[in-house]
Design brief:
This protein is an alpha/beta fold. It has two domains: about 250 residues, NAD(P)-binding Rossmann-like Domain (Rossmann fold); about 240 residues, 3-Layer(aba) Sandwich (Glycerol-3-phosphate (1)-acyltransferase), CATH 3.40.1130. It contains 20 helices and 20 strands. Helix 2 runs parallel beside helix 3 and helix 10 packs parallel to helix 11.
Length: about 525
C-alpha cells in the first residue's frame, strides 16, 4: 500500500494533506503510487491556474513511477452565462466566447491531457472556501465588503476542504477514469452566502464594471461568476466511487449553519410577499383576473402545467404562478427562456419566483421531486405572435412537454388565458441585429405603448385550467420514445386548448371589462 503523493504550491494542497493526516491515510492498492496535483492561482489579475507551475507538475506526473495522475481542475471551466441550466453534468461544457476564466481552465485541462494521456483523472470541484486560500472565492468570503452587479442573484456551490479531500481519496482508491464534478450537498444564493459570511454587498453598475479590473481578483469575469447560476451535478462521482458530501454550501461558510436553500434559487417567502402586494394588486384591481378550474391541479404529486404565452413580457406566467399558489398552496416551477435572466432586474425576479432555464434535465429535476412543472410549448416565438393571430395556437415545438410527462409518469394539465394578449398587442416589428443580440428576442415588437413605455394595458383576463390528461395511466413510459404517439397526444391537447380559447374569446363581453365566469380566487 502506498501513500498518495501531493504536488502543487496551492494552499488547498497543504490543507488537503493536513486533513488526510488528521483523519486517515489515503492509500491506493496499485503497485505504483498515485499522485494528485492542486494548481495554484495565477498571479496578479491573470485568470485561472498558474500555467508555469502546471507544466512542471504535469511532467513530474508523467514519470513512469506514477501510475495514476489525479489533477484538480475547477468548475469554473463551465463558464458563467445566462444559458447555463444549473446542476451541469460533466458533458455539458459549452465554450462561451470572451470568458477568460473558462478559457484558462480549458487550456489547463488540454495541457494535462496532452502530457498525461490515459493515466489522467480530472477532478472539477465547486469553489473551495478556506481562510488560507488565495483564490477569488476564499478572498470573497474573508473580506468585509465586495462589489456585486445590482439586480442579480447568482446561485453558488461552496465546497469544504474536507469534502474535497474525501472525494479525491475515494477516487484514488477506485478504478474511476475520465472527468468528475465534485459538488457539495446543496447550493446557496450569493446574497445569502455573503450575508452568512458578514460581507457587505456594494452595488456595481454594469456600465462601469470594467473598472473592477483595478480591484484584485474582481475582474468582470469573476463578477459574472457570482451573478449567474453555474452549479454542477455531483451524481457521477457518487455513482462511480461513492462520494457523498458531508457539508452543504452554507456550512462551507459557517459550519453550524442549518440553513437550506433551493438549488435553483426559488424563494417561497419572496413569492408570498409578492402575493400579498404586487401580484394581489395586479390580479384583483388591474387585470381583474377571473380564474376557473383550479380543482384540476393535483394537491400533491407531479404534474405538467401546459399553457399559452402571449405578450412577450412574463406577466401571464407570474399571474398563473400566483393563482396556483393561492388556489392550491403549491409553487409551480416554470421553464423559462435564458433571455429572462440575462437582464439584471429580471434575473433576480424570475430566479426567486422559481424560474429554471428550459432543458430536459431541469424538467426531470422538478418532476422527480413530485413538483408542478410549468411550460409554454410554443416557446419564445409564441410570446411574439402578432395580435391578429394572438388566439391561434402555433406548432408546439418538438412536443417535448409530452415526452417529459410520459418519461416521468405525470399527468398533463392544460391551461389557457384570454386577455393577456392585449396588454402589449403586437402590430409590427423592428428588425435589428444589435437588438436581437442584446435581448435574444426575435425582433423588437411594436406593441403600444411599447417600446415608448413599458406599462401594460389594463385588459380583462380570464384564466381556465382544463381537466388533466392522464397520459401516465394511458401509456407506458416507453411511449416517450415513440414520436408518432407523442405527436398524437400533443395534437389532442393542442386541440382542446384551442377549443377553450375560442370559447372564451367568443363569450367575453369586451377586451377591457365584463366577466364570463365568476373567479375562484379572492386575493
Amino acid at each position: 500500500m502506498t501513500r498518495l503523493a501531493i504536488l502543487g504550491a496551492s494552499p488547498h494542497a497543504a490543507l488537503a494533506a493536513a486533513n488526510w493526516k488528521m483523519t486517515r491515510s489515503v492509500e491506493v492498492s496499485d503497485t505504483a503510487p498515485a499522485a494528485v496535483y492542486f494548481p495554484k492561482a495565477a498571479s496578479g489579475n491573470a485568470p485561472g491556474p498558474d500555467m508555469g507551475e502546471a507544466a512542471q507538475c504535469f511532467h513530474k506526473l508523467a514519470s513512469p513511477e506514477v501510475r495514476r495522475a489525479i489533477v484538480v481542475s475547477s468548475a469554473e471551466i463551465y463558464g458563467a452565462h445566462h444559458h447555463n441550466t444549473g446542476l451541469l453534468a460533466e458533458t455539458k461544457l459549452i465554450q462561451a466566447s470572451g470568458n477568460r476564466i473558462q478559457k484558462a481552465w480549458i487550456d489547463f485541462e488540454e495541457a494535462a491531457r496532452g502530457i498525461l494521456g490515459d493515466k489522467l483523472l480530472l477532478i472539477r470541484p465547486a469553489p473551495t472556501v478556506t481562510r488560507e486560500g488565495k483564490d477569488f472565492y476564499s478572498r470573497l468570503f474573508n473580506q468585509s465588503a465586495t462589489l456585486v452587479l445590482p439586480g442579480s442573484i447568482g446561485i453558488l456551490q461552496l465546497l469544504t476542504i474536507e469534502d474535497l479531500s474525501d472525494a479525491i481519496g475515494l477516487a484514488a482508491g477506485s478504478n474511476a477514469t475520465g472527468i468528475y464534478n465534485i459538488a457539495p450537498a446543496g447550493s446557496i444564493p450569493i446574497a445569502e452566502a455573503l450575508e452568512l459570511a458578514h460581507v457587505k454587498r456594494i452595488p456595481f453598475p454594469r456600465l462601469i464594471r470594467s473598472a473592477a479590473r483595478a480591484v484584485a481578483g474582481s475582474g468582470p469575469d469573476q463578477l459574472d461568476y457570482i451573478r449567474y447560476n453555474w452549479t454542477i451535478s455531483g451524481s457521477k462521482a457518487q455513482r462511480d466511487f461513492g462520494f457523498t458530501p458531508r457539508y452543504n454550501s452554507a456550512q462551507a461558510i459557517q459550519r453550524d449553519s442549518s440553513k437550506q436553500f433551493d438549488d435553483f434559487g426559488m424563494d417561497p417567502d419572496y413569492i408570498a410577499r409578492w402575493g400579498r402586494t404586487g401580484f394581489r394588486a395586479l390580479h384583483k384591481y388591474y387585470w381583474r383576473i377571473n380564474t376557473r378550474g383550479l380543482a384540476h391541479i393535483p394537491r400533491q404529486g407531479k404534474a405538467v402545467l401546459t399553457g399559452v404565452h402571449r405578450g412577450f413580457m412574463p406577466f401571464d406566467a407570474t399571474m398563473v404562478l400566483d393563482a396556483v399558489v393561492k388556489g392550491t398552496g403549491r409553487i409551480p416551477r416554470f421553464l423559462i427562456h435564458p433571455c429572462l435572466i440575462k437582464m439584471p432586474p429580471l434575473n433576480n425576479f424570475m430566479t426567486r419566483l422559481g424560474g429554471m432555464v428550459a432543458c430536459q434535465e431541469n424538467a426531470d429535476w422538478v418532476l422527480e421531486r413530485d413538483e408542478l412543472l410549468g411550460i409554454y410549448p410554443e416557446g419564445i416565438r409564441g410570446a411574439f405572435t402578432y395580435y391578429k393571430e394572438a388566439y391561434k395556437l402555433h406548432k408546439f415545438g418538438r412536443d417535448e412537454y409530452v415526452r417529459m410527462a410520459l418519461r416521468n409518469r405525470a399527468p398533463i394539465v392544460p391551461f389557457v388565458t384570454v386577455g393577456h394578449a392585449e396588454i402589449f398587442p403586437i402590430f409590427g416589428r423592428i428588425d435589428s441585429a444589435a437588438f436581437r443580440q442584446w435581448t435574444e428576442w426575435p425582433f423588437c415588437p411594436v406593441a403600444p405603448p411599447w417600446p415608448l413605455a413599458p406599462l401594460p394595458l389594463p385588459s380583462k383576463w380570464h384564466m381556465e385550467f382544463l381537466p388533466p390528461i392522464h397520459v401516465e395511466q394511458q401509456y407506458p413510459a416507453e411511449a416517450a420514445d415513440d414520436m408518432k404517439t407523442v405527436r398524437a397526444i400533443s395534437r389532442d391537447i393542442r386541440a382542446s386548448m384551442q377549443a377553450a380559447i375560442d370559447r372564451l374569446v367568443e363569450q367575453r363581453p369586451h377586451l377591457f371589462w365584463g366577466s364570463i365566469f365568476k373567479g375562484e380566487l379572492n386575493p
